[in-house]
Every structure is written in C-alpha cells, then in structure tokens.
UniProtKB/TrEMBL annotation:
Residues 26-428 form the Cation/H+ exchanger transmembrane domain. The keyword Ribosomal protein does not apply. The chain crosses the membrane at residues 17-35, 42-62, 68-85, 97-120, 126-147, 168-189, 195-213, 225-245, 289-307, 319-345, 366-394, 406-428. The keyword Cell membrane applies. PANTHER family: SODIUM/HYDROGEN EXCHANGER (PTHR10110), SODIUM_HYDROGEN EXCHANGER 7 (PTHR10110:SF86). This is Na+/H+ antiporter. Pfam families: Na_H_Exchanger (PF00999). Its main location: membrane. Belongs to the monovalent cation:proton antiporter 1 (CPA1) transporter (TC 2.A.36) family. It comes from Chromohalobacter canadensis. Keywords: Antiport, Cell inner membrane, Cell membrane, Ion transport, Membrane, Sodium, Sodium transport, Transmembrane, Transmembrane helix, Transport. InterPro entries: Cation/H_exchanger_CPA1, Cation/H_exchanger_CPA1_bac, Cation/H_exchanger_TM, Na+/solute_symporter_sf.
Length: 553
C-alpha cells in the first residue's frame, strides 16, 4: 500500500485503497471496544494500533498526498464542530472564547514559532510558525471523554467553543505560514492583513452557501418535493462544497466549513421530519467518530517510518533522538505555561473589570480553574490532520524539516493526552460541583412544562368537540391525558409515597410497552420466516417499531 493516494491509476492500486479503507474502518471499531478494556485514552490506543499495523507483522505502509488528506478530513470535522457547538453558551462565553481562539493563538504562534526555530534551526522560520500554529488548536472531544461528564458545564462549553474557533484560526494561520515557507517570504504585518481578509471571506462564503441550502429545503418542503435521503446526502456534501468554493475564491476553506456547520445547525432546528433529524444526526456522529479514529490510525501507520527517518537524519545533524524527545517535552511545557498564564491573566482582569458571575463552577478558586483549563488543552485530530498535510516537496526539493515537524507534533499530541488523562481527573477531585444537579433540575422543569402544555392542549381540544363525537373521542383523550399526568407525577421533585408510586407506574408502563414492541418484532420475524411478508415489508415495519421504542427510551 506504499504511495497511497500518490498514484490512483491501475486496478491493483484501487484494490489497495479499498482494502486500506476497510481495514482502517474495522480498526476504528475494534479500538472503541478495546478502549472499554484497556485504561488508555482512545486516541493513544488508536495510534498504537496504527503502529502495530505498520510493524513487520502486518507490513502496512502508507504514503499520503497532503492536499487530498486536507480536503478529505478537515472540512467534515470542522463542519461538525460548527454544527454541534451550543449556540446559547457560545454567546454567553463569547468574550473568553474569542480571546482564547484569537489572542492566545496569536501569542502561541509567535512565541512558540520563534522558540522552535531557535531550538531547531534546520526548520525554517516560516515552517516553525506553521508548526506553532498547528499546535495551537485544542480537542474538546478528547477532554470531555477523559472527564466523563464531570467537567463544570460552563468550562465544558468554553472548551467546545474554543476548540471550534481555534481549530479554524490555527489552521488558517498554518496554511498562511506554509504558503510563506513555500514562497520564501514572511512578514507578520502582511500575514495579519491577509488573515483577516481570507477569514471574513471564508465565513461569508460558507454561511451564504449553507443558508441557501436551507432556503432550497424550505422551498421544496412547501411543494411536497422534500426527500429526507436526498437532503442528508446534500448535507454530507455541503462541507466539501463550502471548502472548495472558498479555496477556489482565494479565501479560507477552513472557516467556510465552520460557518456552513454553524448556519446549518440553525436550519436543522426548523420544522422537519423526525426521521430526517434521526438519520442526519446518526450519520454525522458516525462520521465524526470514524474520521477522528482514522486520523490517529494514520499517524500510527506513518509514525515508525517518521521515527526511522528522523533517526537516520540525526546522524548528520546536531541532535540525537533522545534530544528530540527532550525538545518535545520542553515544547509541551512551554505550551502549558503560555496557556496557564493567558487564562489566569484573562480571569484576573475579568474579575476586576466585571462583577463575578455566580453560575455553576464559576465561583471555584481561580488557581484551580486555571490549572484545570490548562491541562484540558489537549491536542488532537485537527493538529494531526494539519501537520500531515505539510507538502512533501517545494519546487522538487523535500520540504525542510517535514519529518521533524510531524514527529514533534505527534509527540506533543501524545504528551498532552497523557497530561489530560492524568491531570483532569486529579484536579476534578478538588472542585465543588453543583451545576450537574442544576442542569438536571432545568431538564426536569422543561419536561414538566412540555407535558403540562400537552395536557392543556388535549383538554382544549376535547372541549371543542361536538357532543356526538365527544363520547368515542373522550376515552382516547382521557387515556392520553392520564398518561401525561402520570409522567408529571413521576417527575415531581418531592419524595412522598404518591410520587414514588407514580414513578413506579410510569416505569412499569414503559417496560410493558417496550416488551410489547419486542413481541411485535418476534412476530414479524416469524411471519418473514414463514414467507407471509417479504423482506421490504419487514424492514418497513421494523423501522417503525425502532422509532417507537426510541421515543419511549
């Protein structure tokens, strides 16, 4: 499988690509199972699996085309980041998110870029800035997985917002620095102006395209031309279209994909068939998990070869492999120090300029919150996808320091994951969390309000019926109203006997309904086995039962 994606001609090469896709997808699934057994962060486990596949035992060897890699992985990952970001919390914490994703990224690029060039002069200054830029994005998904839902809500939302925005700003800075490295000219002033232009252009193109797709969907729905499957396929292609159009226009395809995701999440909340939302959400969750896993597996597949080349080059350079590992540790320490100082300074200034907000975990000690936020700055798939997209050649000559850049980026990712896996659970022990309970109370209140609204509507509907229709319809209405009232009693906050009984009855009804659905499935399978119904009819009926059971659960 050598020279994968570098030469797409020939049936043998096509089979190699298909085999690689199948194997990587299978490995991603296996890694998720192993993560429940082996106490390691999932990304590290996937990197180790990739190294195992690259070992002589399996002999898999992969050579990636950086441009195709960037086009294949970056747009969908950033699109889904923009889609799932909680908009309300993003607005509430907009100041900190903007500071972390713009100012902190700028400070990191400049300080770490000069430090890398001073540490390893063999990496040109522009390439050093590129490496610093791609090390700036954080990975909220890995942090949330490590924390297992125990992070304060406000911190979790801030990390998600920061990860989405600094993914975009870090990648845009990275691409500009790579372009500077290839042309040989670099100026911070000109780069800053170019950054603003391509960023705004990318946001405008992606947002406009996504808004247009939403308007077309509304137009088709109004004329009964709407088809869920076609719409979902269109949404799958949307991030690639946004990326391509923006890049073709000379703007930021990265920010275009983010903007498309953010606008599309608003469009998705408009009235639409339930099946469309279920299908859309399921497909994107699967793609996000698969693409993240494949990126880390590809690093593992390439990592032994990178280490081998770096080891060979170290014989002719002024550094040894042990020295490079030490450099990676120092680089990680610098990134942590910069992040800690920036977060502490931001909160210190905020508490003196504005009144402290008494929300959830925000009243925690400043030093503890700052330390936890610092170790939560885990690097992940975006950093990896970006550094793997560094060009192989410049004007026919190997890109200077490419293997060193990938080696250092991979080492920082692994170190940050280890620090997060050890540090986050440790510092969480010292937090006095109460926002999880508050969140549950808010959810319960919303459910009770929704149930009461349903009861009120049913009662009004029943009163509006004529006397001739009231008797047959009244029993159905009364049964539904009684079901809602049982649910409301089950959600009551007090712990008296009546509430306990209501909860037990509600649980009993739910269990009975689920068991009845299971009996229906068994009967349908029996009818299919005896050929009383065909395969298509079985699939249709089973799908209906699946949705019904999903609603109950």
């Amino acid at each position: 499988m050598k020279d994968f994606l570098s030469d797409l001609s020939g049936p043998a090469n096509t089979m190699d690509i298909l085999n690689l896709v199948f194997l990587l997808t299978l490995a991603v699934g296996i890694s998720r199972i192993l993560a429940n057994i082996i106490p390691l962060p999932l990304p590290i486990l996937q990197i180790l699996m990739g190294c195992l596949l690259a070992s002589p035992l399996f002999g898999m060897e992969v050579e990636l085309d950086p441009e195709i890699f960037m086009m294949l992985f970056i747009p969908p990952l950033l699109f889904y980041d923009g889609w799932k970001i909680p908009k309300k919390e993003f607005t509430e914490h907009g100041g900190q998110i903007a500071a972390m994703s713009l100012l902190l990224v700028l400070v990191t690029v400049v300080a770490v870029g000069y430090f890398i060039h001073w540490l390893l002069p063999s990496i040109p200054l522009a390439a050093s800035f590129a490496l610093a830029a791609i090390l700036s994005p954080t990975d909220a998904l890995s942090v949330i997985a490590i924390a297992q839902g125990r992070l304060p809500r406000h911190m979790s939302h801030q990390l998600e917002g920061e990860a989405m925005m600094n993914d975009a700003t870090g990648l845009v800075s990275f691409k500009i620095a790579i372009a500077a490295a290839m042309t040989g000219g670099f100026s911070l002033l000109s780069v800053s102006g170019e950054f603003l232009m391509v960023a705004l252009g990318g946001l405008l193109i992606g947002g406009t395209l996504s808004w247009t797709v939403g308007k077309i969907k509304q137009w088709m729905t109004a004329r009964n031309l709407y088809d869920p499957a076609t719409y979902v396929v269109t949404i799958l292609l949307l991030p690639f279209a946004a990326f391509y159009l923006a890049e073709h226009a000379g703007m930021s395809g990265i920010l275009s994909a983010v903007a498309a995701g953010m606008v599309q999440s608003r469009v998705d909340m408009l009235p639409v068939k339930t099946s469309t939302r279920i299908l859309n959400r399921s497909i994107w969750e699967m793609l996000d998990f698969t693409f993240n896993g494949v990126v880390f597996l590809l690093l593992g597949l390439q990592f032994p070869g990178i280490v081998e080349r770096v080891w060979a080059d170290s014989a002719t350079q002024s550094y040894a492999m042990g020295t490079l590992v030490l450099y990676a540790v120092v680089l990680m320490a610098l990134l942590l120090a910069i992040r800690f100082a920036f977060i502490y300074a931001y909160h210190w200034i905020e508490t003196r300029l504005f009144k402290p907000r008494a929300k959830g975990g925000e009243n925690q000690p400043l030093l503890l919150i700052t330390t936890l936020s610092s170790v939560a700055g885990v690097r992940g798939a975006i950093t990896l996808a970006g550094v793997l997209s560094v060009p192989l050649f410049i004007n026919g000559v190997s890109f200077p320091g490419r293997d060193l850049m990938i080696f250092l980026a991979a080492a920082v990712i692994i170190l940050s994951l280890l620090i997060g896996a050890l540090g986050i659970p440790y510092f969480l022990r010292f937090l006095s969390l109460n926002d999880l309970e508050e969140h549950e109370r808010e959810l319960l209140k919303a459910r009770r309000s929704a149930s009461q609204a349903a009861v009120d509507w049913l009662e009004e509907w029943s009163k509006a019926q004529s006397s001739d229709e009231l008797e047959p319809k009244g029993s159905v209405t009364a049964r539904i109203i009684d079901s809602y009232r049982q649910e409301m009693q089950a959600m009551a906050m007090d712990r008296d006997d009546r509430a306990d009984q209501a909860r037990q009855l509600h649980q009993l009804e739910t269990d009975l309904r689920i068991r009845a659905i299971q009996a229906q499935r068994r009967e349908l399978y029996r009818l299919r086995k005896r050929r009383h119904i065909d395969e298509q009819m079985l699939q249709t009926l089973i799908r209906e039962l699946d949705y019904e059971e999903a609603a109950l659960q």
